[in-house]
Amino acid sequence: MSDRVITILIKAKPNNITLLQIYAPTAEAEEDEIEQFYAEIQGAIEETSRADAVVYILGDFNAKIGEMAEADIVGKFGLGERNEAGDRLVQFCQEQHMRLTNTWFRQPRRRLYTWTSPSGQYRNQIDNILCQQRWKSSVQAVKTFPGADCGSDHELLVAKIKMRLCSVKRPPAYQKFDTSKIGPSYAAEIRNRFELLAIEENQEAEEILEKVKEIVVETAEKHVLYKKPIRSAKWISEETIAIAEERRRAKMTRSRDEVRRLNAMFQQAARKDKEKYWNEGCARAEEAYRKGNMRELYQHVKKTRTVFMARQATIRGRNSEELHDQEGIRKIWKEYTE
């Protein structure tokens, strides 16, 4: 929806589930920006397809709720003191009939804070998970995992949710034969069975096709192996994984300077790994093109096209024309703000 609110719709029975991931402006932001942020959340809630849809809102609200309980919205297990942004969040929960689930479960203090300052001196609870009052019993527990290696100054915040949903039967997954492993034994038996295939003069085409299919499948099951499931490309090297593990251990010892150093190393190593992975893929595609292997070339090109590419921002100019280039967009925004 925007750079501050994204929506995930999980289709389920009897109720759809909508997850809103948010990132709020900081407490120093202008009042108009904060109000626009909450208006976006409200708009996303109103766009849910069904009135009985289950909605959870999670993310960095940049708001401190504190330890003061309030009606059925805020529990007594918050952290610190409420600030102005916290008051605005509580007001929003009241308007939307939601509750701040973080504050309703007794946890050690180390399981309550969600953010640590760069100096390590301050810890606050500014990330929250909201749920509708109607579905409050679905949230079984909420806590942070300080030991999780997220490469961020925020801690991993996890909610345990339990709901009764109808089971949806999925069609069986069909296995595919590995056609690259077809050998002479398969070809010989196929040839023999087709020579013996009796086709009557007035036989329907569908019946003939069914017999052909039966022969091909039965012979393949005897002589051809099934394809093994192919996992996503593992482009991260063992060296980069080792850096991530070292970073995780440093975080456990609360060595913040070491964590920052290792985090920078990890980001740099990961970028190099990804660049190497794509360079090797391009080299294989070029080799396939040089050899005239169009099938392999297509597979490499298809793999590159399935990678997510962020959509470039688009705005309308003075004459309602669409502007895509960054220079034109900056010019329009400059004129608008002046």
TrEMBL record:
The highest taxon in the source lineage is Eukaryota
GO molecular function terms attached to this record: catalytic activity
Q: Where is the signal peptide?
A: none
Q: Which Gene3D superfamilies match?
A: Endonuclease/exonuclease/phosphatase (3.60.10.10)
Ranges of residues in domain Endonuclease/exonuclease/phosphatase: 23-154
Q: Which PANTHER family match?
A: BUCENTAUR RELATED (PTHR23227), CRANIOFACIAL DEVELOPMENT PROTEIN 2 (PTHR23227:SF85)
What is this protein called in UniProt?
Craniofacial development protein 2-like
**Originating organism:** Octopus sinensis
Lineage per the UniProt record: Eukaryota, Metazoa, Spiralia, Lophotrochozoa, Mollusca
